[in-house]
Structures are given as C-alpha cells and as structure tokens.
Amino acid sequence: MIQPGKLVIISGPSGVGKTTVLKRLFSQCKLPLRPSISATTRQKRPGEVEGVSYYYLSDEEFQSKRENDEFLECVEVFGHGHWYGTLREPVSTGLNEGKWIVLEIDVEGAARALKHYADAITIFIHPGSIEELEKRLRGRGTETESALNRRLDVARRELKAAESYQHIVTNKSVDQTVNDICQLLEALENQ
Ligand code: 5GP
User: Which secondary structure element, helix H or strand E, spans residue 169, and what is its range?
Assistant: First the structure.
C-alpha cells in the first residue's frame, strides 16, 4: 500500500521570490514534491508556459468549473481583479499516489484549502519588510505604477496573515530559503 503524500501550502506576497524559490526546491529536495498547477483568468506573462505556470482560462471557462465544484479553493485575488483556483482532482490523485503536493496560493485560498486538508503543512515566505518587497517589485519591472501599488496594498494585508502559518521563512537569499524549506519538510517526513 502506498502511503498518501502530504499537502504543502506556500504563500507569500507577490514579488517575494516564490517562483524562483519553488523552482529550486522542486529540483533540490529529496521528497517527492509536485507543484499543483493553478488555473487563472489573468494574462500569461512573458516566459510563462500554459500547463506549467498556470492553466490560462477565460472568465467563462473558469466560472463553469467553479459552478461544477471542480475547485478545491478559488478566489478573486484582492487587488488583481482576476480569478485564481486550485483544481480538486489533481491534488487528491497526487496525494493518493504518495506525492507531496505543493500549493502556491494566496492567504485567503490557503484558509479555504485548510478547511478540506486540516493537516496540511503551511509555510509563509516573508520579504522581511514592505520596503524590501517594493525594491524587488520595482527591480522586476513588470508592473505599471498603479499595478505595483495595488500589489503592495495586497502585500500589507498578506503580511498580517503570516502569523497564522506554521512556518515563516524570511527570504534573505534564495539558497538559504530553499535550504530552510527543504529541511523543515524533510523533518516532517515521518510524522
Ligand atoms: P501571480 O499573478 O503573481 O502569478 O499571482 C498572484 C497571486 O495569486 C499570488 O499571491 C499567488 O500565490 C496567488 N495564486 C496563484 N495561484 C493561486 C490559486 O490557485 N489559488 C489562490 N487562492 N491563489 C493563487
């Protein structure tokens, strides 16, 4: 009998470096970690790939899946004006196959997912401060000034929610953050 995997929920404000950290985590960590691919109604950014970064859906497609109860959780992420959601089926299939499924979702979605998977491991990637986050977002240069200010507003709310996570990891360097997350997950392997 295969031992079911664990659900890992990772949140952190946009621009904190989650994508880079997670990419490294998947290649470096010895556990059978698998990313959950979210669905979104937002536009694809340069460098993103359909079915790898996200499933890009029209508003109609997204709402139809929502009505069919295909999402484990979905939210209109505050300040973005777009829907994001985790599909139920790939998560339960992956867990049943013994995989550790990693959800990279916002704090509201995390609270909803926890209602279904109360034993999930929750990790918050913290920028250290709002000023540090602003520096990173400006450096990335993908946002207009108003989009950037919206993201910072969302980030302020998200940082307040960090305290409800089991683990808070401050992203001072990618190497350190990947090591910290990897170590804490490996320590939970036999629990
Ligand atoms: P971005 O547009 O920068 O890729 O993501 C914006 C926000 O949406 C991030 O905070 C990210 O964690 C969140 N997000 C991505 N996928 C999901 C999802 O499936 N569900 C929820 N609730 N949030 C998500």
Answer: strand 167-170
Q: If you take atom 15 of ligand 1, which residue's CA is the nearest one?
A: 105
Alpha carbon of 1 to ligand 1 centroid (Å): 34
Q: Is the pLDDT of residue 80 over 80?
A: no
Per-position DSSP letters for 70-111, written without gaps between them? -EEEEEEETTTTEEEEEEHHHHHHHHHTT-EEEEE--HHHHH
Region 29-48: mean pLDDT is: 96
Q: Name the residue of 106, 158, 165 whose CB sits within 8 Å of the most ligand 1 atoms, as the mutation to test its pocket.
A: 106
Bridge partners for 40 per DSSP? 56, 84
pTM of the predicted model, to two decimals?
0.93
Q: Single out the residue of 8, 23, 5, 191 nearest to residue 93, CA to CA.
A: 5
Confidence of residue 83 (pLDDT cuts 50, 70, 90): very high
3-state secondary structure of 119: coil
Phi (first) and psi of residue 139, to 5 degrees = -65, -35
CA nearest neighbour of 15 among 181, 175, 168, 150: 150
